[in-house]
Amino acid sequence: MPTDQLERKPEWLKIKLTKGENFKQLKEIMRSSTLHTVCEEAKCPNIHECWASRTATFMILGSICTRACRFCAVNSGLPTELDVQEPERVAEAVVQMGLKHVVVTSVARDDLADGGAAIFAETIRQIRLSSPLCSVEVLIPDFMGNADALLTVLEAKPDMLNHNIETVERLSDRVRSKAKYARSLELLSRSKQLAPSIPTKSSIMVGLGESTEEIVRTMDDLRAVDVNILTIGQYLQPTKTHLKIKKYYTPDEFLELKTQGMNRGFSHVESGPLVRSSYHAHEQLQAANETVSSMK
Fold it and tell me: DSSP letter at 293?
């Protein structure tokens, strides 16, 4: 859809709000445990669907990010605290919610020597202790390329290691703050070298001015470092101060991108207008594990 026709969102981006009992209960649990979710902080369009089905992505290490990416609605600034009890509270909330799969992500904490890796690892361990049947996916920042920080997280044995490439190489420096395209690929590659049995995952936003050829090239770059799962979704401008949308991709275009990704060997590609990194995360993990099992 041309830039001059972007005044109104297309029909396929209209969200049906569902605030059932599960949604209300989950919100109460989050508030009573003083926890943050990326669902709220990043204004995810799927919050009502996911919360109604008792699925959420916990955001640890506070609600203030040390970076200011031009696509993200999370508050940026200088964090003032580190809550070492947070892993236990997340684990308790997982029990209360009865989750079978949990995603743990965080703000970037470049003010910490390990970028918050130790808190990630402890959160995984606490969830394992209290909910041994619950699978755990982590969506981590790049830790500024700190290999020891990555190892700290991997040694806690998450079921899935997720790190988002976010956009194509040409746009990366403009879209992301401090993060580097090559560093993200290096992290994903190193993860497979250190823990080859842990599936890896990444995500691309579209609608920022990239070409189809650049998206496909990014897919090839991710497959070159053996990333298993890819998610592709429409960038939606959270506020007027964030990057403007250059294009709305149609459902058919997302379907074609899914085909392109599957043809390149990803075990699963989740591609659609409202898809975000953690959307249908449990199903994605199952797909990755089935692929690994079939290769044994």
Answer: H
Distance of CA 82 to the CA centre of its chain: 22
pLDDT digits (tens, 9 = 90+) for 228-283: 999 999 998 888 888 899 999 999 999 999 999 999 999 999 999 988 766 555 56
pTM: 0.85
For the 16-290 domain, the top CATH level (class) is alpha beta
DSSP string, 144-212: GG-HHHHHHHHHT--SEEE---BS-HHHHHHHSSS--HHHHHHHHHHHHHH-TTS-EEEEEEE-SS--H
Percentage of the chain beyond pLDDT 70 is: 77
State residue 114's pLDDT score.
Answer: 97
The 3-state DSSP class for residue 58 equals strand
Nearest alpha-carbon partner for 159 in 27, 12, 294, 289:
289
The helix or strand, by DSSP H or E, that contains position 37, with its residue range, turns out to be strand 36-37
Determine the pLDDT at residue 53. Answer: 57
Kindly list the domain boundaries of the chain, sorted by start residue.
16-290
Going by C-alpha positions, the residue among 93, 84, 86, 88 that lies closest to residue 60 is: 86
Extended beta strands in 188-274, E state: 200-206, 229-234, 268-272
d(CA 238, CA 244): 9
CA atoms within 13 A on the CB side of 114: 14
Instruction: Decide: helix, strand or coil at residue 76.
Output: strand
pLDDT tens string 83-116: 999 999 999 999 988 888 889 999 899 999 999 9
